[in-house]
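Inputs:
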Amino acid sequence: MQRVLNKAFFDRPTLDVARDLIGKQLCRRLESGKIIRARICGTEAYDGFEDRASHASKGATTRNVVMFGPPGRAYIYLCYGVHWLFNITTREKGYPAAVLIRAVEGVAGPGRLTKHFQISSSFNDQLLTRVGGLWVEDVDGEVSPTRIVATPRVGVNYAGAEWAAMPWRFVWEKQE
DNA sequence: TGCGCGATTCTC
DNA sequence: AGAATCGCGCAT
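Outputs:
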């Protein structure tokens, strides 16, 4: 039994969404029609106006405006002029927040992940809550919360000690 | 209008 | 340790 994560799933506190996305299945239908699925095992939350690590802390721009939009959409931006990074928006329209998808099983690293799934700017602001080119599915066998570890986010020291220290990164620590 | 740096990754 | 290389924020 599989179900597509709906808007209500993403219309919740960003930390809850980031944690609950661990173990969910990222799904992508390629141009060829082939469908790729892999479980999410690393996420990061970027939440609200005050989070200095978030693009949204400086206000809305052409790049980050999707973060201010409705939940359950793809926020994709070019990092270091080289890599596309894939986020999913959370919270209601007007409140800037998103979850960065850092890793899935077998593919570690947010830039590598988008390359593997062939995700680029064409998906920016696209709806993820229905089966199409890109969506997320729940799967049988819930992941035990005890296997999910919260740590500080990666590469955000520029945000200052307070925000850099927030344990808003979630990693699936598999036993064995 | 220009400059520095970033939610990274790969190679030397 | 450095390169690749595009946008944004902030200073000229």
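Remarks. Residues 44, 46, 53-55, 77, 79-83, 85, 87, 100, 102, 109-112, 153-156, 158-159 of chain A lie near DNA strand B (CB under 10 Å from a C1'). Residues 3-172 of chain A form a domain with the 3-methyladenine DNA Glycosylase; Chain A fold (CATH 3.10.300.10).
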